[in-house]
Amino acid sequence: MFDAELLDQPRLRAWLHEGMPKPGQPTPPSSGDGVPEWPGRLLAYQPGQAMMRGHDVTVWQRQMYARGWRIDVDGVYEPRSAEVARLFQKEKGLPADGVVGRQTSEAAWAAPVT
Protein backbone atom coordinates (compact mmCIF):
# COMPACT_ATOMS: atom_id res chain seq x y z
CA MET A 1 0.00 0.00 0.00
CA PHE A 2 1.25 3.51 -0.81
CA ASP A 3 2.11 5.66 2.20
CA ALA A 4 1.51 9.34 1.36
CA GLU A 5 3.60 10.40 4.39
CA LEU A 6 6.69 9.19 2.55
CA LEU A 7 6.31 12.14 0.19
CA ASP A 8 6.77 14.50 3.13
CA GLN A 9 10.20 13.14 4.04
CA PRO A 10 12.93 15.78 3.60
CA ARG A 11 15.36 13.44 1.84
CA LEU A 12 12.76 12.32 -0.68
CA ARG A 13 11.69 15.89 -1.35
CA ALA A 14 15.33 16.97 -1.80
CA TRP A 15 15.95 14.07 -4.17
CA LEU A 16 12.83 14.81 -6.17
CA HIS A 17 13.67 18.51 -6.28
CA GLU A 18 17.40 18.39 -6.98
CA GLY A 19 18.69 14.83 -6.99
CA MET A 20 16.82 13.25 -9.86
CA PRO A 21 18.71 13.16 -13.13
CA LYS A 22 17.47 15.92 -15.42
CA PRO A 23 17.86 16.01 -19.18
CA GLY A 24 20.58 18.44 -20.19
CA GLN A 25 21.84 18.92 -16.62
CA PRO A 26 25.61 18.51 -16.28
CA THR A 27 26.92 15.70 -14.13
CA PRO A 28 30.09 16.51 -12.20
CA PRO A 29 33.06 14.47 -13.39
CA SER A 30 34.08 11.74 -11.00
CA SER A 31 37.54 10.72 -9.93
CA GLY A 32 36.42 7.10 -10.29
CA ASP A 33 35.75 6.61 -6.58
CA GLY A 34 32.42 8.45 -6.53
CA VAL A 35 34.01 11.73 -5.50
CA PRO A 36 33.24 14.55 -7.94
CA GLU A 37 36.18 16.68 -8.93
CA TRP A 38 36.31 20.14 -7.40
CA PRO A 39 34.56 22.47 -9.88
CA GLY A 40 37.18 25.19 -9.44
CA ARG A 41 34.89 27.81 -7.94
CA LEU A 42 34.99 28.96 -4.32
CA LEU A 43 31.53 28.84 -2.75
CA ALA A 44 31.12 31.77 -0.38
CA TYR A 45 28.40 33.87 1.16
CA GLN A 46 29.08 37.59 1.45
CA PRO A 47 26.37 39.76 3.04
CA GLY A 48 25.19 42.53 0.75
CA GLN A 49 26.19 40.66 -2.41
CA ALA A 50 24.17 38.36 -4.64
CA MET A 51 24.11 34.80 -3.35
CA MET A 52 25.99 32.24 -5.38
CA ARG A 53 23.84 29.78 -7.30
CA GLY A 54 24.59 26.79 -9.43
CA HIS A 55 24.89 23.08 -9.92
CA ASP A 56 28.16 23.01 -7.95
CA VAL A 57 26.32 24.47 -4.95
CA THR A 58 23.59 21.84 -5.29
CA VAL A 59 26.13 19.00 -5.47
CA TRP A 60 27.90 20.18 -2.29
CA GLN A 61 24.62 20.81 -0.43
CA ARG A 62 23.32 17.38 -1.42
CA GLN A 63 26.48 15.75 -0.05
CA MET A 64 26.29 17.66 3.22
CA TYR A 65 22.62 16.72 3.55
CA ALA A 66 23.52 13.07 2.95
CA ARG A 67 26.12 13.37 5.73
CA GLY A 68 23.35 14.43 8.12
CA TRP A 69 23.66 18.21 8.12
CA ARG A 70 20.47 20.30 8.21
CA ILE A 71 20.78 22.22 4.97
CA ASP A 72 18.46 23.10 2.11
CA VAL A 73 19.41 21.49 -1.18
CA ASP A 74 18.36 24.32 -3.46
CA GLY A 75 21.50 25.39 -5.32
CA VAL A 76 21.75 28.70 -3.44
CA TYR A 77 24.78 29.30 -1.21
CA GLU A 78 23.08 31.33 1.51
CA PRO A 79 23.88 32.02 5.19
CA ARG A 80 22.88 28.51 6.35
CA SER A 81 25.16 26.93 3.73
CA ALA A 82 28.06 29.06 4.98
CA GLU A 83 27.24 28.12 8.59
CA VAL A 84 27.21 24.41 7.72
CA ALA A 85 30.54 24.85 5.92
CA ARG A 86 32.07 26.58 8.98
CA LEU A 87 30.82 23.93 11.39
CA PHE A 88 32.00 21.12 9.10
CA GLN A 89 35.40 22.77 8.66
CA LYS A 90 35.78 23.16 12.42
CA GLU A 91 34.77 19.53 12.99
CA LYS A 92 37.35 18.32 10.46
CA GLY A 93 40.18 20.60 11.64
CA LEU A 94 40.11 22.79 8.53
CA PRO A 95 40.29 26.60 8.50
CA ALA A 96 36.72 27.54 9.48
CA ASP A 97 35.95 30.38 7.07
CA GLY A 98 32.65 29.13 5.64
CA VAL A 99 34.10 29.06 2.13
CA VAL A 100 33.91 25.79 0.23
CA GLY A 101 37.18 25.48 -1.64
CA ARG A 102 39.07 22.40 -2.82
CA GLN A 103 40.01 21.17 0.68
CA THR A 104 36.51 21.52 2.13
CA SER A 105 34.89 20.08 -0.98
CA GLU A 106 37.13 17.01 -0.98
CA ALA A 107 36.63 16.50 2.77
CA ALA A 108 32.86 16.45 2.22
CA TRP A 109 33.33 13.16 0.37
CA ALA A 110 36.51 11.74 1.91
CA ALA A 111 36.37 12.58 5.63
CA PRO A 112 34.64 10.11 7.93
CA VAL A 113 31.11 11.00 9.01
CA THR A 114 31.17 11.82 12.71
Protein model, in words:
This protein is mainly alpha-helical. The protein has a domain at 60-107. The protein contains 4 helices and 2 strands, in the order H-E-H-E-H-H. The protein has helices at 10-19, 55-66, 79-91, 102-110, and strands spanning 52-53, 76-77. A two-stranded antiparallel sheet has the order 1-2. Helix 1 runs antiparallel to helix 2 (55-66). The longest helix is centred in the C-terminal third of the chain and has 13 residues, at 79-91. It starts with 9 loop residues before the first helix and ends with a helix. The mean pLDDT is 83. Residues 54-107 form the Peptidoglycan binding-like domain. It comes from Nonomuraea pusilla. Residues 16-38 are annotated as: Disordered. It holds the Pfam family PG_binding_1. InterPro entries: Peptidoglycan-bd-like (IPR002477), PGBD-like_sf (IPR036365), PGBDSf (IPR036366).
What secondary-structure arrangement, pairings included, does this model have?
Elements: H1 10-19, E1 52-53, H2 55-66, E2 76-77, H3 79-91, H4 102-110
Helix pairs in contact: 1-2
Give keywords.
single chain, 114 residues, 4 helices, globular, Putative peptidoglycan binding domain-containing protein, PGBDSf, Peptidoglycan-bd-like
Strand line-up in the sheet with most strands: 1-2
Secondary-structure-based class equals mainly alpha
- Total beta-strand segments: 2
Rg over CA atoms, rounded to whole Å, is: 15 Å
Enumerate the spans where pLDDT stays under 50 for 5 or more consecutive residues. none
Helix content: 25-40%
- Described by the principal axes of the CA atoms, the overall outline is globular
Instruction: Please report which band the strand proportion falls in: under 5%, 5-15%, 15-25%, 25-35%, 35-45% or over 45%.
Output: under 5%
Q: Would you tell me the overall average pLDDT? A: 83
Largest sheet, strands/sense/barrel: 2 strands, antiparallel
Protein name: Putative peptidoglycan binding domain-containing protein
Region (Disordered): 16-38
Domain Peptidoglycan binding-like: 54-107
Pfam families: PG_binding_1 (PF01471)
